[in-house]
Every structure is written in structure tokens, then in C-alpha cells.
């Protein structure tokens, strides 16, 4: 059997983040317009593995995904063992801007899923001029808690097992088995309390319903792609954002769930490529 | 054993003749020849759970540290299911006088019927989706349910028509 390397390169970056030293793991592939990808709550940058291996995307884009602190191969900051991890909107926005600055990314496209899809709405509202375009996957303005989040982090429930079991139904039923279980494995590998800490942002702190209509897409185009089997951020919730933001473009992706780029990359990429094409057209028109 | 089971069902049918659950049992007795027995209501025979779970070695292994009673309510009909080390040891139909269970899952009949379709629609395809939509209620000691969530999801999905 021939071994082969993927074109993805991973490195560790040391930087000041949120006023503390951090060691972050960052992967990238390709060249061209930067496409910075944000993973879902409780997972990591491996969710974007297929995009970084897709020649049609990497021929035109430098695809970058970083593992947030506490996630994947990024470490929590020193002192973590005496803290409770809780992600807030303010921290999340600051983190993205500081990573962009550290990587010297000039007007990247930022694409985020779930919590990443939500923060994209915050970025569109608060920092539209920093981005070429924003893409929200499974992006809604708010999600009410629908189970007791304490079950995600308590000693008598295995964290990895319960996190994966909670989200397993969010994968579309017809997703290829290997991609489904790869996606769930990432959840099984999350650190104790990390998924729960992310959901603090998703379900409590990051509610943007009152402000979402103020997003100005003339300053930064906004695209929404949502899978129809997602019951966490339902297609209706994404469409509600699209309805209240002038010229936001939304597509419901049939058959897909909450992790489109990871659970069924091939189908997802067929929806993403036209969006990247359109962003290219908009950028060329703006320069002309 | 078989005759005892049939006898019990006959008694139930007689005792509660004319009730919804009695009609279901009577209907079930006529549909057992089909590999996937569905009642007229779209509800599968819950008793099938025993065979379907116990013949799946991987599911039984996943539940090897699980022993509990749990209650499923399908509309007004209750079912008490006993799991011993991952194997379904009994499935009893109510009504019960003093049932003991660790947790209960309750939903209207049509909600379960949609969940048990071969290819459920979005929102009916997963227990957590039903919970999110507030059409399935959970109560009792949910630590048991959550600690073994994958087991219970796969266990109840065994009743799907094509399962």
C-alpha cells in the first residue's frame, strides 16, 4: 500500500490571546484569498479536512482552521485547572480578530459553523469592514436550551460518550458512515466541560435576535447555508435571519444536518463552490 | 411460555375490551406473522424490542453496564421495559398499578409513529429532536438516560419499520 501525505500543514502558534499566553494549533492548505474556518462547539478544526483537500477550493483559497483554546490540539491557558471554561461573545470575537492579526490576514472570508455561524453574525454586525465576506453555516440568532447542560460535565456521565450521543442526531441520516463517525469521534475527544462551556455562548450569552436586523450587507456580504436535518439551529431559524437581514443569501441544504462540511463534505462543497464564486465576482466588481 | 404469553394478552384483551389498548393488543395478535408488525395506528409492536435488541451483539455490548427499568408512554398506553446488562429482559404493557422505573419517555401516539417511520422526516428522526420540539417529555432519573444516551437512541430506533 502506498502511503500519501495530504496537502494540509499543521503548526503551533504561540500568541497573546485575551491577554494571556496561548499555544494554538492551526492547519492550512492552498493559496489565494484567505478562507478562515471556525469549528463547531466541542469539536476542532479537523471538521474542515475535506475543504483543505479539495483542489477546486485550495487552488483559489488559503484555507485556514485553528483549534480554539481548550479544543483539539490547542491547549487551554495556564491556570485552566482551577477555572470553569465559559465562552462569551466578546472573547470569541476578540480571539478571531487576534488570530487574524497574528496570521496577517487581510480581509479574509470567514466561515463558521454553529457557534461559528452565530459569531459570524456578530462579526457582520460589529466588524463588517474587516472581512471580504462572511459565511454562516447552521447560523441562527439564538437557540433555547433544550436539555440540562449539566449532563455534559459531571463525573457520573462519560463526557465523550454523552457529547457525541447528544449531537449524533444532528448529523443527516444519509451522511456517509465514515464521515458521520469521524465527526462524532471529534466530539468524543473533547475535554471535560469544553462543549458545555461553548454552549454558554451558543445558548445564553450570544443571543443576537434584537440586533441581527442591523447587519449591513453592503459593507460585508453575508451568506447562510443550513442543513435541513438540523434541529439545534433549524432551517426556519436560519431563514428568519435571512428574512431580517437585507440581501443576506440563504440556502437550505437538503439531506444535510448540523455539521455539513464534516458529515458529508462532497454534498456540502457542491453548495459552497457557487458561494465562493459569487464572493469572487462581488470582490472583482468592488475593485473595478 | 408462548401459550402463557398469548393467554396473558387474551386476558388483557378481555379485561379491557373496548378500550384503545385492548384494540391494539387484539390487532397485534393478528399482525405477528409479518416481520415488522405495525399496528393500524402506525405504532410498531413494542414487544419486538426484545428480539431486535438482544440479537444485536454490538448494542448489547454497548449496554453491558446498564440494568434498569424504563417507561415508554405511547399516547395513553404505557410500556415498562426492563434492561439487564444491555439485554431487554421484558417488555410489559400497562396499565400498571405501581410501576417502578428509573425514567419515563412520554409522547403522543402520532409523534412516536413518525419517529418509527422507516425514513423519518427532519425533526422526527432522533429522540433529541423530539425533545427539542417539546413533543417528547422526559422525567425521572435522567442520569441513566443521559449516561447511556447512545444505547437508548439505538434501542428505540430498533422499532423502525426497516430496522
The count of β-strands of chain B is: 5
Structural class of chain B: alpha+beta
Mean pLDDT score of chain A: 97
Percentage of residues in helical conformation of chain B: 40-55%
For the terminal residues of chain A, how far apart are their CA atoms? 51 Å
Outline the low-pLDDT stretches of chain A. Answer: none
* Sequence stretches where pLDDT stays below 50 over 5 or more residues of chain B: 1-35
Strand content of chain A: 15-25%
Biggest sheet: strand arrangement of chain B:
3-2-1-4-5
Mean pLDDT of chain B: 82
**Binned strand content of chain B:** 15-25%
Overall form of chain A: globular
Strand pairing plus helix content of chain A: what structural class?
Answer: alpha/beta
Cα-based radius of gyration of chain B, to the nearest Å: 15 Å
Question: Can you count the helices of chain B?
Answer: 8
The pair of chains with the biggest contact is: A-B, 23 and 20 residues
Strand order, main sheet of chain A: write it out. Answer: 1-2-4-3-5-6-7-8
Oligomer: heterodimer
Give the biggest beta sheet of chain A.
Answer: 8 strands, mixed
Q: Largest sheet of chain B, if any?
A: 5 strands, mixed
Amino acid at each position: 500500500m502506498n502511503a500519501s501525505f495530504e496537502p494540509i500543514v499543521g503548526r503551533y502558534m504561540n500568541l497573546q490571546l485575551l491577554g494571556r499566553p496561548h499555544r494554538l494549533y492551526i492547519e492550512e492548505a492552498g493559496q489565494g484569498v484567505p478562507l478562515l474556518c471556525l469549528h463547531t462547539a466541542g469539536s476542532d478544526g479537523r471538521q474542515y479536512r475535506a475543504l483543505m483537500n479539495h483542489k477546486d477550493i485550495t487552488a483559489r483559497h488559503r484555507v485556514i482552521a485553528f483549534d480554539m483554546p481548550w479544543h483539539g490540539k490547542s491547549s487551554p491557558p495556564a491556570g485552566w485547572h482551577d477555572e470553569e471554561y465559559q465562552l462569551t461573545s466578546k472573547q470569541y470575537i476578540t480571539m478571531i480578530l487576534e488570530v487574524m492579526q497574528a496570521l496577517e490576514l487581510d480581509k479574509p472570508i470567514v466561515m463558521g459553523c454553529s457557534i461559528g455561524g452565530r459569531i459570524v453574525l456578530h462579526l457582520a454586525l460589529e466588524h463588517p469592514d474587516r472581512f471580504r465576506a462572511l459565511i454562516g453555516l447552521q447560523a441562527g440568532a439564538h437557540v433555547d436550551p433544550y436539555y440540562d447542560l449539566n449532563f455534559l460535565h459531571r463525573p457520573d456521565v462519560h463526557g465523550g460518550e454523552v457529547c457525541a450521543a447528544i449531537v449524533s442526531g444532528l448529523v443527516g441520516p444519509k451522511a456517509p458512515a465514515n464521515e458521520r463517525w469521524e465527526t462524532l469521534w471529534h466530539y468524543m475527544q473533547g475535554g471535560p466541560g469544553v462543549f458545555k462551556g461553548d454552549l454558554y455562548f451558543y445558548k445564553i450569552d450570544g443571543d443576537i435576535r434584537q440586533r441581527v436586523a442591523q447587519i449591513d450587507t453592503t459593507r460585508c456580504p453575508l451568506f447562510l447555508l443550513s442543513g435541513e436535518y438540523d434541529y439545534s439551529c433549524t432551517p426556519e431559524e436560519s431563514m428568519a435571519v435571512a428574512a431580517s437581514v437585507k440581501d443576506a443569501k440563504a440556502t437550505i441544504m437538503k439531506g444535510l444536518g448540523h455539521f455539513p462540511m464534516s458529515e458529508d463534505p462532497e454534498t456540502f462543497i457542491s453548495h459552497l463552490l457557487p458561494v465562493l464564486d459569487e464572493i469572487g465576482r462581488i470582490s472583482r466588481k468592488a475593485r473595478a | 411460555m408462548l401459550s402463557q404469553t398469548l393467554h396473558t394478552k387474551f386476558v388483557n384483551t378481555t379485561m379491557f375490551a373496548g378500550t384503545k389498548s385492548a384494540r391494539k393488543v387484539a390487532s397485534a395478535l393478528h399482525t405477528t406473522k409479518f416481520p415488522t408488525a405495525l399496528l393500524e395506528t402506525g405504532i410498531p409492536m413494542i414487544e419486538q424490542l426484545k428480539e431486535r435488541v438482544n440479537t444485536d451483539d454490538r448494542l448489547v455490548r454497548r449496554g453491558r453496564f446498564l440494568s434498569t427499568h424504563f417507561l415508554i408512554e405511547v399516547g395513553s398506553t404505557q410500556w415498562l421495559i426492563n434492561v439487564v446488562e444491555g439485554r431487554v429482559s421484558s417488555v410489559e404493557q400497562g396499565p400498571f398499578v405501581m410501576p417502578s422505573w428509573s425514567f419515563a419517555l412520554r409522547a403522543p401516539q402520532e409523534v412516536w409513529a413518525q419517529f418509527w417511520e422507516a425514513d423519518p422526516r427532519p425533526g422526527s428522526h432522533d429522540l433529541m429532536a423530539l425533545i427539542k420540539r417539546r413533543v417528547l417529555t422526559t422525567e425521572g432519573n435522567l442520569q441513566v438516560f443521559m449516561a447511556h444516551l447512545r444505547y437508548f437512541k439505538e434501542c428505540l430506533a430498533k422499532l423502525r419499520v426497516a430496522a
